[in-house]
Design brief:
globular; alpha/beta; about 425 residues; binds flavin-adenine dinucleotide; single chain; FAD/NAD(P)-binding domain; about 20% helix; 5-stranded parallel β-sheet
Length: about 425
C-alpha cells in the first residue's frame, strides 16, 4: 500500500464513467497527482451531460458529451472501454465481460443506477433520445396531444427532470386546449429540496397551467386515449399520452456485498461495508436521493479519503450533503439549494446562481471542468476572483453563492 515513505503509487480502479466516476477521477488527479495511478473502466466511451438533454429540444443548451479517453489522458489516467462483470474482493481484481482482468489496490464503484419503466403502457422518459422529446413536443404543437400526463413513480427516481419536462411542454405548446398533468408519488412537489422549493415550484406549475396531483400512484389501461386510474383518490383521467419517469434499480455486479435492494451501503468515507478496499459513490449507493450533485459530493469524499491514503495532505470539503439543482422551467431557471444535514433548513430558492460555476451538476471538480470547456464556445462567465463564498446583491436574505472550485489542473486544455 502506498504512503509518503513508499514511492509506489496507489492503484485506483474506478468503475463507471458517469458523474461520480469522472468527479472522482478529476478529484484524485487534483488532490493526489502522482501518488495515485488511476484506471477508469466504463461501458460508455463518453460522459453524456444528460441534465441538459431535457431542455435541448426546447431550444436549451446542448447536452455535451465528453470523451472519457481524452478526459482520462488529461488526468494522467488510463481509460479502458469495457463492461465490469465480477469483483473478486479478496483477490483485488475486477473481471470484465470480455474476459479481461484488472487488478487494483483500491476499487471505486460508480456504476450509477439502472432505469426501469415504472408504469407499463407509459412512454419511457428516455433522454438518450432527444428525438422522443422533440416528437412529443411536435405532436403537442400540432394538436395531436391535448391531454398529457407526466408521472413520477414512488421509490428512487430522478425527480427534477419530471418537473422540467412538464413545465417546458406547458410553456412551449401552450394552446388553450392543451393540458399537462403532473402526477407524483411525493407528498409535495420536490419535497426533498425543502418547503421553499415546494412553494416556488407549486407556483411555477400553477402559472404554467400544469395541474398537480401529489401523493398518488397511477395504473394505466387502454390506449388512445389511455385511462389513468389514480390511487388513493380512485379518480380516472383520459390522456392522449403518458410519459413516466423511470424507477431506479441497482446495477448488477457479482462479488460485491449489496443490501437486499442491490444498492451498496457505504460509511462516511464512502467505504463499502464488508468489502475491504472497495468504495462507492453516486446512484449505486443506498443514499435515497438520486441526484448528480450528490453523486459528485459522494465522489469528492472518496477522492479525499483516497488522496489521504496515498499520502497527500487534504482539506476536507465543507459542502458535503448540500442538495443543489438548477431547474429549467421554460420561463427562466430556478436555483434550489438545501443543506440535507440540517433538518430545519427550509431550503433556498433564487432566480440567479447560488453556486459557481453555475453548472446543472454542482460538482466541485466537474462543474469547473464543464465550464472551462464551454467557456469561449458559449460565453460562460468566469468565477468570482476570490473567496469560497460571496454575497450576490439581488438574492434576498443571507444567501451565499457557493464557490464549488477552480478549474481542475488537467493537461491538454
Ligand atoms: C434527464 C435527467 C436529468 C437530470 N438532471 C439533473 C440535474 O439537473 N442535476 C443533477 O444534479 N442531477 C440530474 N440528474 C441525475 C444525474 O444525472 C444522476 O444522478 C447522476 O448521473 C448519477 O451519477 P452516477 O455517476 O452515480 O451514475 P451515472 O452518471 O449514471 O454513471 C454510471 C456510469 O457507469 C457506467 N456503467 C454501468 N454499469 C457498468 C458496468 N458494468 N461496467 C462498466 N461501466 C458501467 C455507465 O455506462 C455510466 O457511464 C438527471 C438525470 C436525468 C436522467
Amino acid at each position: 500500500m502506498s504512503s509518503q515513505a513508499d514511492p509506489e503509487p496507489l492503484r485506483v480502479l474506478v468503475l463507471g464513467g458517469g458523474v461520480a466516476g469522472v468527479e472522482c477521477l478529476l478529484g484524485l488527479h487534483d488532490l493526489a497527482g502522482d501518488r495515485v495511478e488511476v484506471t477508469l473502466l466504463s461501458e460508455t466511451r463518453d460522459l453524456h451531460y444528460r441534465p441538459l438533454a431535457v431542455g435541448e429540444p426546447f431550444g436549451g443548451e446542448h447536452a455535451q458529451r465528453y470523451v472519457l479517453a481524452e478526459l482520462a489522458e488529461q488526468c494522467g489516467a488510463r481509460f479502458v472501454h469495457g463492461v465490469a462483470r465480477h469483483v473478486d474482493v479478496k483477490g483485488h481484481v475486477v473481471k470484465t465481460l470480455a474476459g479481461n482482468v484488472l487488478s487494483y489496490d483500491v476499487l471505486v464503484v460508480a456504476l450509477g443506477a439502472v432505469p426501469h419503466l415504472s408504469y407499463g403502457r407509459a412512454l419511457a422518459f428516455d433522454v438518450t433520445t432527444k428525438e422522443m422529446l422533440s416528437r412529443t413536443l411536435n405532436r403537442a404543437l400540432r394538436g395531436e396531444v391535448r391531454r398529457l400526463v407526466v408521472a413520477l413513480p414512488p421509490g428512487p427516481h430522478w425527480t427534477l427532470p419530471g418537473y422540467e419536462l412538464a413545465l417546458l411542454l406547458a410553456h412551449a405548446a401552450a394552446p388553450a386546449d392543451f393540458e399537462v398533468v403532473l402526477v407524483t408519488a411525493e407528498r409535495a412537489p420536490l419535497e426533498v429540496f425543502g418547503r421553499e422549493a415546494t412553494a416556488a415550484v407549486t407556483g411555477e406549475l400553477a402559472s404554467a397551467g400544469v395541474q398537480l396531483v401529489c401523493d398518488t400512484r397511477i395504473a394505466l389501461s387502454g390506449s388512445a386515449p389511455t385511462t389513468v386510474a389514480m390511487t388513493p383518490s380512485g379518480e380516472t383521467y383520459d390522456a392522449d399520452l403518458v410519459i413516466a419517469l423511470p424507477s431506479l434499480r441497482a446495477p448488477t455486479m457479482s462479488g460485491l456485498p449489496t443490501l437486499a435492494s442491490g444498492f451498496l451501503k457505504v460509511d462516511e468515507h464512502g467505504r463499502v461495508s464488508g468489502a475491504q478496499d472497495v468504495y462507492a459513490a453516486g446512484d449505486c449507493t443506498d443514499f435515497p436521493i438520486k441526484h448528480g450533485g450528490l453523486a459528485a459530493q459522494q465522489a469528492d469524499v472518496v477522492a479525499e479519503h483516497l488522496a489521504e491514503r496515498a499520502g497527500a495532505t487534504v482539506e476536507s470539503d465543507p459542502h458535503a450533503h448540500i442538495l443543489r439543482a438548477r431547474m429549467v422551467t421554460g420561463s427562466g431557471d430556478l436555483w434550489l439549494r438545501r443543506d440535507l444535514g440540517d433538518l430545519a433548513d427550509p431550503g433556498t430558492v433564487a432566480h440567479r446562481a447560488l453556486w459557481w460555476p453555475p453548472g446543472k451538476i454542482a460538482g466541485r471538480w466537474l462543474a469547473p471542468y464543464v465550464a472551462a470547456r464551454a467557456d469561449g464556445e458559449a460565453g460562460v462567465p468566469h468565477a468570482p476572483a476570490h473567496g469560497r463564498a460571496v454575497e450576490p446583491a439581488d438574492v434576498p436574505g443571507p444567501r451565499h453563492l457557493d464557490r464549488l472550485g477552480d478549474p481542475p489542473r488537467v493537461d491538454g486544455r
